[in-house]
Specification:
By secondary structure, the chain is α+β, with helices and mostly antiparallel strands. It has 4 helices and 12 strands; from the N terminus they run ββββββααββββααββ. It has a single domain, classed as Aminohydrolase, N-terminal nucleophile (Ntn) domain (Glutamine Phosphoribosylpyrophosphate, subunit 1, domain 1, 4-Layer Sandwich). A 5-stranded antiparallel sheet has the order 10-1-2-11-12, covered by helices on one side. A 5-stranded antiparallel sheet has the order 5-6-7-8-9, with helices on one face. The chain has a two-stranded antiparallel sheet with strand order 3-4. The protein starts with 9 loop residues before the first strand and ends in a 5-residue tail after the last strand.
């Protein structure tokens, strides 16, 4: 049994047309023993950036506070809001600092970045537990149901999905994948991020 599987949980981020979505299940467990069905794994970083933290529950709380502190320090020093690409490198360097005694977390990031011309574009990325970045143009996954999420997302994802279609796609991907994983599930939460707003919805899942 890997320590990464100890508390269970899975996260997926997906790109649409001028929007991104990030979803996580709600289960917290001690291996096969269920502890909570309302565990938060996805956190807002700014109005346009969210980070998902699947892995060991104690490290979820630790890293969330560490990222919050570092983002606040960046905002104070730079006098501007952090961009998704910059935040991804901040996450990577934070994890790499602890590579000899790593946090057992594989972060997934989603956000809307501003281009130099003033336009916006969707951004997603993920890292492993020592901070190796993985940028993608379709979707990234992490957690105990990651292999199932890959399989379902490959079949359902299409380029240039509108926000509502992206919500439906990521929701179906998450619910169908976690149904095949004993350590994930018990409902999910989905955040769809556009340049104007963030739409958050809770999904009901199987509780058995």
């Amino acid at each position: 049994m890997s320590i990464m599987d100890h508390n269970g949980g899975s996260v997926i981020a997906m790109v649409g047309k001028d929007c991104v979505a990030i979803a996580a299940d709600m289960r917290l467990g001690n291996q096969a023993l269920g502890i909570s069905s309302n565990f938060q794994r996805v956190f807002p970083v700014t109005d346009r950036i969210f980070v998902g933290l699947p892995g060991l529950a104690s490290d979820v709380a630790t890293l969330h506070e560490r990222f919050r502190y570092r983002v606040n320090m960046y905002t104070i020093k730079e006098g501007r809001e952090i961009e998704p690409e910059t935040f991804a490198h901040l996450v990577s360097s934070t994890l790499y600092e602890h590579r000899f005694g790593p946090y057992f977390i594989e972060p997934v990031m989603a956000g809307i970045s501003k281009t130099p011309t003033g336009k916006t574009k969707p951004f997603i990325a993920a890292t492993d537990l020592i901070g190796c970045l993985n940028f993608a143009k379709d979707f990234v996954v992490a957690g105990t149901a990651s292999t199932k999420l890959y399989g379902v997302a490959e079949g359902l994802w299409e380029p240039d999905l509108e926000p509502e279609d992206l919500f439906e796609t990521i929701s179906q991907t998450m619910l169908n994948a976690v149904d095949r994983d004993a350590f994930s599930g018990w409902g999910a939460v989905v955040h769809v991020i556009t340049k104007d707003k963030v739409i958050t919805r809770a999904l009901k899942g199987r509780m058995d």
